[in-house]
Amino acid sequence: MLTALPHISRRRALQGAAAALVVFGLLMWWLVPVGDDSPGGRMTFSTGVKNAVYERYGKLLRTAVSHDMPKVDVELLNSEGSQQNVERVATGKADFTIAAADAVEKYRLEGRAGAEGLRGCARLYDDYVQLVVRRSSDIDEAQDLRGKKVAVGQPRSGVRLIADRVLKAAGIDFEKDLTAVDAGIDKAPDLLKKGDIDAFFWSGGLPTTTVRLLSEEFDIRLVELGTLVEALHKQGGASRYYRAAVMPADAYPAAQQNDAVPTLAVANLLVTTDRADPKLTEGLTRTVIDSRDHIGGEVHAAQLVDLRTALYTDPLTLHEGARRYYQSVKP
């Protein structure tokens, strides 16, 4: 025998349906993100010469960004180095870049286009100045470069800026006292092996893969430069960003043969402008810090990014988006 179901009024039925919809809505809100405000669009990142540290770092950072901010499309642009990188960002040809602090300061001191809008996101790692010669060379200090053929980096590179200042500190006229060759890390090693140059300057994180590979197939050594710090500082301006440093003996074992090499170092900065979107800048800064170990697996210098010092982006003011990130992780 069937038992009749209790009669439910229309009002009670509507109330029940409404309650069910509220519960369903809350469940869907919990399960499915609503109003995702993660940044999107295209971001242009200026890197460096092919197969050098800036380019490799840029490629690895692009992969990390695609994971952390999937709606951001990162375009990488090769460049001659720091000086061109700063100019590109300042004039709107790129959104973000890596550049050495001396190149940033030089651009600012010259009052060039867009300099006042430059902002920092993070202090990354230090570049070490490397003067590479054949092991049999008679070049034992920078002063011995007089009369030699020397690769001094490309015209708009950070290497060119450093080479010029190091040579001045050593009492050498860049244009009169030696033969300067416009070649960066992509070409200089082959020129040295062929005997077309006597030495080349490089400034990069340790170890730079190209220099390491060269040392393993050709007898080279690194010339000490650490005694030039005082003379560099006397030049004033951007030269104040150079400091004495030591390349550890295991940076290039084949070249250094268990000897540490006194040299010079300068900090690298992640650079943008005050035009950059704060959410994008905050997200990129977070990715740079969070991915340091992953990127450091291939670019060793990236492991040296330190959250405690990353916000010190002298000579640049910290971008508002980057500031938000550092405030969010402050203990």
* Mean pLDDT over the full residue set: 90
- Return the structural class: alpha/beta
- The quaternary organization reads as single chain
* Shape assignment: globular
**Main β-sheet, in a few words?**
10 strands, mixed
Number of strands: 10
Work out the helicity level.
25-40%
Count of DSSP H/I helices:
12
Unreliable sequence segments: 1-5, 25-35
Q: Alpha-carbon distance between the termini? A: 71 Å
Beta-strand percent range? 15-25%
Tell me the Rg in angstroms.
27 Å
SSE string: HEHEHEHEEHEHEHEHEHEHHH
Describe the protein's architecture and organization.
There is one protein chain. With 331 residues, the protein is an alpha/beta fold. It is 37% helix and 20% strand. The protein has 12 helices and 10 strands. The chain has helices at residues 10-31, 53-68, 82-90, 101-109, 158-169, 188-194, 209-217, 229-234, 253-256, 278-290, 292-296, 320-328, and strands at residues 41-46, 72-77, 96-100, 118-134, 149-151, 179-181, 199-204, 220-222, 243-247, 261-273. Strands 1, 2, 3, 4, 5, 6, 7, 8, 9 and 10 form a 10-stranded mixed beta sheet that branches. α2 (53-68) crosses α10. The longest helix is centred in the N-terminal third of the chain and has 22 residues, at 10-31. The N and C termini lie far apart (71 Å). The model is unreliable at 1-5 and 25-35 (pLDDT under 50).
Give the tags.
single chain; alpha/beta; 10-stranded mixed beta sheet; 12 helices; disordered N terminus
